[in-house]
Amino acid sequence: MKRQIGYLLAVLLLASCASHKEAPQPARRGSNQVFTGTNMAALEYANVIHQAARRYNVDETLVKAIIQVESGFNPAVVSRSNAIGLMQLKASTAGRDAYQLKGRRGQPSSRELKDPAINIDLGTAYLSMLQRQLAGIDNPLTQRYAITVAYVNGAGALLRTFSSDRQQAVRAINRLSPEDFYAHIQAKHPAPQAPRYLWKVNTAYQSLTPDA
């Protein structure tokens, strides 16, 4: 009888402890839980991306989405046109521009661009340059679309689809809704890869922000 009473007390005690366990918290929007669910290989780069995005005041999720599309988080990828690493940077173009932003001469080496931390830093710096070049676009979503397209084909090519005058181009963009701007890129951008790239990056972005 004593053994049965002791057993019942033990069961009640365990049940009481279980009822006080902390409930699992849902993944926060843009958190590592959501991010790594999309691409487990990205976990080791999450902190580097976070720090670079803060350093250059760039949308962290956009950096992640671009990496997802450009390299699938494989730092060893080299394209036929010699774009290198996680953010697929060309040393003589985006790499050189990012170097100049950081006050450095010349351009990064292939070895540097294959280093994930350096590649993310330079790629995010380049995004910040595009962000400045496209300053004046009022709607945040439209600006994100514009930066995405500029990353693959340059800000100048994008603006010229509206006007050869930068200020007039920005005013024309601000008259459009984000949906109309997106449709404009799909129909008017002269580079055939631009519409597809915008779609791919936007799809990746949305997968990283499931509550959006």
Can you put this structure into words, describing what you see?
By secondary structure, the protein is an all-alpha fold. It has a single domain, classed as Orthogonal Bundle (Lysozyme). 65% of the residues lie in helices and 0% in strands. Helix 8 packs parallel to helix 11 (178-188). The termini are far apart.
Return the string of H and E elements: HHHHHHHHHHHH
Q: pLDDT under 50 segments (min length 5)?
A: 1-38
- Roughly what fraction of the amino acids lie in strands? under 5%
Alpha-carbon distance between the termini? 60 Å
**Radius of gyration over all CA atoms, rounded:** 23 Å
Number of helices: 12
Helix/strand-derived category reads mainly alpha
CATH architecture: Orthogonal Bundle
Largest sheet: none
Name a few traits of the molecule.
212 residues, mainly alpha, Lysozyme, globular, disordered N terminus
